[in-house]
Specification:
The complex is a heterodimer of chains A (254) and B (231). Chain A has 254 residues and is an alpha/beta fold. Chain A contains 9 helices and 10 strands. Chain A has a 6-stranded mixed beta sheet with strand order 6-7-8-3-9-10, with helices on both faces. In chain A, strand 9 and strand 10 form a beta hairpin. Chain B is an all-alpha fold and 231 residues long. Chain B has one domain: MetI-like (MetI-like fold). Chain B contains 8 helices and no strands. The relative contact order of chain B is 0.15. The chains are: A alpha/beta (254), B mainly alpha (231). At the A-B interface, helix 2, strand 6, helix 3 and helix 5 of A face helix 5 and helix 6 of B.
């Protein structure tokens, strides 16, 4: 896999636990991403995949466990969580574009308000990022005027405009019509190939096989098995992994 | 008939200024208090939320006329604090409106989808930045229609201050009644009141039109709320 020098590790999560009421959603999850790596998290619903992503950038506060971004621990009480989040992109299943802002303004607002970039520079950057996801011509459109696929691409551009160290994708194609999934995956694949560090919760196995360095199979709040896509598909250790991979391959195709 | 026609001008001249001033003043006071109360109810700590809830329940639960009399006659009789009539009316109705307006803004803030706040925080905005740049601009648009209703409502409530002697349109109309009855006969009182009603109607209509213009001006795709169906 990748070289293990600590400098290369962008993200390290260690023994994350999270309980909602009586339900222990995460029961000690650890994972690591080196610079440029793409990892795909799969698993049945309710296994804590989304919770794991949210615990990483502290949108949900884990009960215990630690997270490092590079060499900096971000789970400590006194660290500047806003500055941390500014370095971690997050792409939501249901887009969460700012509904009162145009595509351009959606992408521009982070650099302008969080990074205090001046308006002309932020605007140029936003246009570039929109072009990067193939939406240069939709800069002036409001979210309500965009298709689901276009919305998701704008939200990827919004994450990119912050020059994040990594991007977390929380089922980015699950809310899309089948014919719109392709355009979003295309953007994600090219990002992965350009060397973006990505942790993706998705059941798009085509995507996983094309670009993922590793597939992480979660069930019942723990990582049951993880490994390179080829190995997992041909030779999974756990019967549950094999069963699940067969099921989603049936559903989503290769 | 002549007297009726001639009473339109006195109603407008002597009554309209106080009606308009009261309406604008109490809406302003209601806004200045109502917005922070809404804010505290949504984002504040628990004791603050309870305090605001209590305030809002009190001022929405007591009749406007009772509030006016409480502030004017009540304070004067019990504590020898005699507030000027106009000020009493303004404060009583303003506090009452602040309670109603707080609920307009609270509803608007809470109607903004929670995902908006989460997305704002995910790009590194602080809670206040997210409120200022993401939640409030959306809540503002959502609050215009109910706020228009509040305008119509309080404009007409200003007539209640006639009870403590503020000469606004209602009081002026009542002051004209004896003259009309003496000159035209008792049955013309009805006409006089219809004239007053029409002036209120016109003011309501004009205000609603102005606020409707504002609503259209700040309208954005996704915020239409027309519920329109083509067929």
């Amino acid at each position: 896999m990748t070289g293990e020098s600590t400098n290369d590790i962008v993200l390290r999560a260690q023994d994350i636990h999270k309980t909602y009421g009586d339900l222990e959603v995460l029961r000690g999850v650890s994972c690591e991403l080196a610079r440029g790596e793409t990892k795909v998290v799969i698993g049945p619903s309710g296994t804590g995949k989304s919770t794991l992503l949210r615990c990483i950038n502290q949108l949900t506060i884990p009960d215990s466990g630690r997270v490092w971004l590079g060499d900096t621990e971000i789970t400590c009480k006194d660290c500047d969580i806003n500055a941390v989040r500014a370095q971690i992109g997050f792409v939501f299943q249901d887009f969460n574009l700012f509904t009162h802002l145009t595509a351009l303004q959606n992408v521009r607002i982070g650099p302008m308000r969080v990074k205090k970039m001046d308006r002309p520079t932020a605007t140029r950057l936003a246009v570039e990022e929109l072009e990067r996801v193939g939406l240069g011509d939709k800069a002036g459109a409001y979210p309500a005027e965009l298709s689901g696929g276009q919305k998701q691409r704008v939200s990827i551009a919004r994450a990119l405009a912050m020059f994040p160290q990594l991007i977390l994708f929380d089922e980015p194609t699950s809310a899309l019509d089948p014919e719109l999934i392709g355009e979003v995956l295309e953007v994600m694949i090219s990002l992965a190939k350009e060397g973006m560090t990505m942790l993706c919760v998705t059941h798009e196995m085509g995507f996983a096989r094309t670009v993922a360095d590793e597939i992480i199979f979660m069930e019942g709040g723990i990582i049951l098995e993880q490994g390179a896509p080829d190995r997992l598909f041909s030779n999974a250790r756990e019967p549950r992994t094999r069963e699940f991979l067969n099921k989603i391959t049936e559903l989503y195709g290769e | 008939m002549d007297t009726i026609l001639h009473s339109i001008w006195p109603i407008v001249r002597d009554g309209l200024p106080n009606t308009v001033l009261l309406t604008l003043g109490l809406l302003g006071l209601g806004l200045a208090l109502g917005f922070p109360i809404a804010f505290a109810q949504v984002y504040g700590y628990r004791p603050l939320r309870w305090a605001c809830k209590g305030y809002e329940q009190f001022f929405r639960g007591v009749p406007a006329l009772v509030l006016i009399l409480l502030l004017h006659s009540g304070l004067a009789r019990s504590f020898h604090i005699l507030l000027p009539t106009f000020a009493s009316g303004l404060i009583a109705l303003g506090l009452r409106s602040s309670a109603y307006q707080s609920q307009i803004f609270r509803g608007a803030i809470q109607a903004v989808h929670p995902g908006q706040m989460i997305a704002a925080r995910s790009i590194g905005m602080s809670k206040w930045q997210a409120i200022r740049h993401i939640v409030l601009p959306q809540a503002f648009r959502l609050s215009i229609p109910p706020w228009t209703n509040e305008y119509s409502s309080v404009l007409k409530d200003t007539s209640l201050v006639s009870a403590i002697g503020v000469v606004e349109m209602m009081k002026k109309t009542m002051l004209l009644m004896p003259t009309v009855q003496y000159r035209e006969g008792a049955k013309w009182i009805l006409m006089l009141l219809i004239v007053a009603a029409l002036v209120y109607l016109l003011l309501t209509y004009a205000g609603n039109m102005g606020l409707g213009l504002l609503e259209r001006r700040v309208r954005l795709p996704g915020f239409e709320m027309t519920g329109k169906v083509e067929r």
